Amino acid sequence: MTVAPGRYGVFARGTDLTPDLAATIESLGYGAVWIGGSPPADLEHAESLLAATGNLVVATGIVNMWASPASEVAASYARIAGRYPDRFLLGVGIGHPEAVGQYKKPYATIIEYLDGLDAGGVPVDGRALAALGPKVLAVSRDRTAGAHPYLTTPRHTREAREILGEGPLLAPEQKVVLDTDVERARAIGREKVSNPYLKLTNYRNNLLRTGFTDQDLDTASDALVDALVIHGNPTTVAAGLIAHLDAGADHVCAQVLVEDRADYVPALTSLAGALDL
């Protein structure tokens, strides 16, 4: 692939990602920033982050296939790729049935959407696919630069790499809390994963496939929270990110969780130091 996000990136909600924050993330040494949520088809937010930075890769995590027509997204991609070559990665995904009223035939919709991006001139190596299960991981391997799994563990990363084989991008998201108070860190993590993620079928099914139980999911057990939200000092958190790389990821994007929407730049700074960026 021509877009090179580096080994470490930052995943953040689109509402939090200002141009100034993107510039700060770049200055800390991270290779990419992922725009969380469902960015609209105009992709203007991504373009504003690219304009504010010099080398940072900007990726969408993810453009929702139900909300943004492929033809419109393709036109936006062409505009951005022309202005910022090799710095934009278009992440797309099918979303969740609980959140999309017209959700039907998801696999067929994914294929049709990728066909639409093909028709619009979006190159295979310029796009990634949100993928959890084996079937969609195989599509990400065959039709895109690779996979961007969300809410997963190094075990899933290892299994995903087996499906992808060598070559395709594997860029999981990993939630982190930089706090050595275990109960406080778990409370922050439990709140973030319980609602809505543990109520969504796609995530539940994937977590069950990777060894968790219905009881873990229904209670947001300590074991589940500890796996989905790495917490501790910067060295411990860095080791949790590195575990994805050791399991076969090419890139891992950290989503830093903080208490009561506090400033998370200090946490990103200390994590960057532990990762030796």
From TrEMBL:
Top-level lineage group: Bacteria
Alphabetical list of Pfam families matching this protein: Bac_luciferase
InterPro entries listed in its UniProt record: Bact_Lucif_Oxidored, Lucif-like_OxRdatse_MSMEG_4141, Luciferase-like_dom, Luciferase-like_sf
Gene3D superfamilies (UniProt xref): Luciferase-like domain
Domain called Luciferase-like: residue spans: 19-115
PANTHER family assigned: CONSERVED PROTEIN (PTHR30137:SF18), LUCIFERASE-LIKE MONOOXYGENASE (PTHR30137)
Protein name: LLM class F420-dependent oxidoreductase
